C-alpha cells in the first residue's frame, strides 16, 4: 500500500499544457485538504498569531478553486507525483501564491489584496482555536521559520512537505510571483533540514485545541455593547492621555497585538525569581543563578512598565543595543535581576537567557525612559560577574554576581599603583571612575577587579551594560590579567582599549609575542598583539602594537578586523613598522611569533631573514608587503 499523499512519479512532460476544470480542482482539494491547509499554515507569516493563521490557512485553501477552466502549471504535483494530478498542482500553486501575498506589508497607496485581509470564512466566535503543542524541536523550528522571509519559508515547506527538488521549487515560486527565487533558496538553506518535524501536530491546523474567550465579559455584555464600550474606552483614553506616558504601561507604545505567549511574558507576576542561595549548589555560575535584588523587586507597577516598554518602546523611549543584539520583546517571562532606586531614577534589570535588558525611568515620570540591551549568551564565571547599574558624573556603579566576595579599582596603565578597595552593599559597588566616556589625551585607564573563589579577575567598562574581561598570554591559553607580569604587559597598551568601545566586546587579550633588538643597539623593542572578541562572534578587532625601550605607551602599527590572526583558531601574527634610529636612519622592523621560521619583505622594501625577526634599511614612507613561513611550512601574511 502507499500513502494518500505519495504516489509514483509521472512521466516527464505528462502535465505540460493540461487544462484543469473546477471539478478536477475540487476533487484534488477535498482529497488533499489536510495537507494543503498544513502547507498554507506553514507558509503564512507567524506574526499573524496561531489562531488567525489557522483560520486564514483554511480560508486560503477554500478559495483556491478556479472560476472556470484554467491551465495547469507545468510543475508536477510532487517530486514523486500526486498521481500526476494537474488539479492538485493548480490548487497548491494558488495556496502558495495567496499565502505569500498574505505576508506582504500593507501599503498606503494600493488597495490590499484579498489574502492580506482577515478571512470572511471560516469564522469562529466564542472560541480560540490553535494546533496542539509540540516539543522543543518543533518550537525551535517554528522560531527559525519565523525568521525567514515568506519565499524562503515556502522553499523549506515545499522541500520538506511536498518533497519537491530545488528545480521544481524554483518553478513553483516563479509562477507564484516570486522574483528572487535563488535568494529564497539560499536563505532556506540556513535552516537545518528537519523536514520530519513538518508532519508534527504542532503544524497541523486541522487537529485543533479549543479554548473559550473571555467568559465573564460575554456574560456582562452583548456583542454590540462590547464594541461600543471598547470604542468609547479607546476614545476616552486618547483624549485624556497624560503628557509623560501611556498610563499603567508608562512609556510603552499602544498594544498592537494579542498573543497569549507574549502577554504571559509581560505579566510581572510570572517573572522568574531565583533563590538567593541557588548559586551555591548550581553547577553553573552564570546570570541564570543571580537572585532578584533591590528594594523595588516587588513593585508590580514598575515591573509592568519595564516589561511593557521592553515589548513596545514608545517614541519617547531612548533605546540602545550593542551591535547585532536583537531589541525585540522577550520570548517568555524573563528573569528579574534587580529593581530599585538609584539617585533620581528607578532601574529594572532583566535577563531572558540571551540578553540583559536595563530599563530606567526618572522618579518624576516616565517620559524620558531608557532601554538598553546587551548580548550575553554563553556568559559564565568572570564574564557573568557584573552589570552596569548606573552612570553619573563620569562614574559607574556595578551590580555584581552573588559569588563575588571583593571588589576594587585599579589604574591599568600604572601596574605598581595597587588596588583601591570598593565597598559592596547587597552586591552593589561604590562608584568608580569610568574610562568609557573620557575624551582627549589618555593618561589613565581605570578597571574593575572582582574576586571570587577562583581568584581575582580584571574587567573594563567599554560603555556597555556588561564589562569586557581582560586576559594576557598566548591565545590558546590566556590567563587572568591580575599577576604582576600580566599587569606590566597591559600597562603600555591600556589606552588602546578606547578603540573597541561600544563594539559589543566580550574579552580582550594582550599577547607579548616578540622582543626585537634595535639596529642601533639602543635596546630591545616589544611587540604586543591585542585581540578583542565580541559576544556575537564576528566583528573581532586585532591590533599589532610596538613599543621602543623606555616608552610609556605602545603605538598601534597594524590593525585588522574579522581575521583569525592572534586568536585561538590561528595563534600566529606578523607585523611591521618603519622606525627611525637616533642617528636618523630608517629601518623596516618586522616580527612574528616564535613559531615563525622566516620573514620576507617585498614591494617598497626588499629583504628576508631566518627566524621571526627582520630589520632592513628602508626609505622614509616606504611600504612593504610581509610574508612569513611557519615551522610547519604554512605561510602567513603581515597585518596591514
Keywords, separated by commas or semicolons:
10-stranded mixed β-sheet, 14 helices, 640 residues
- Given the helix and strand composition, which structural class is it? alpha+beta
The major pleated sheet works out as: 10 strands, mixed
Query: Unreliable runs, pLDDT <50, ≥5 residues?
Result: 1-17, 76-81, 238-247
What's the pLDDT, averaged over the residues?
85
Shape designation: flat
Strand content: 25-35%
Structure characterization notes:
With 640 residues, the protein is an alpha+beta fold. It is 22% helix and 27% strand. The strands form 8 sheets. Strands 12, 13, 17, 18, 19, 20, 21, 22, 23 and 24 form a 10-stranded mixed beta sheet that branches. Strands 5-9-8-7-6 form a 5-stranded mixed beta sheet, covered by helices on one side. It has a 4-stranded antiparallel beta sheet with strand order 28-27-30-31, with no helix packed on it. A hairpin with a 4-residue loop joins strand 30 and strand 31 (635-637).
Summarize it.
With 640 residues, the chain is an alpha+beta fold. Helices cover 22% and strands 27% of the residues. The model is unreliable at 1-17, 76-81 and 238-247 (pLDDT under 50).
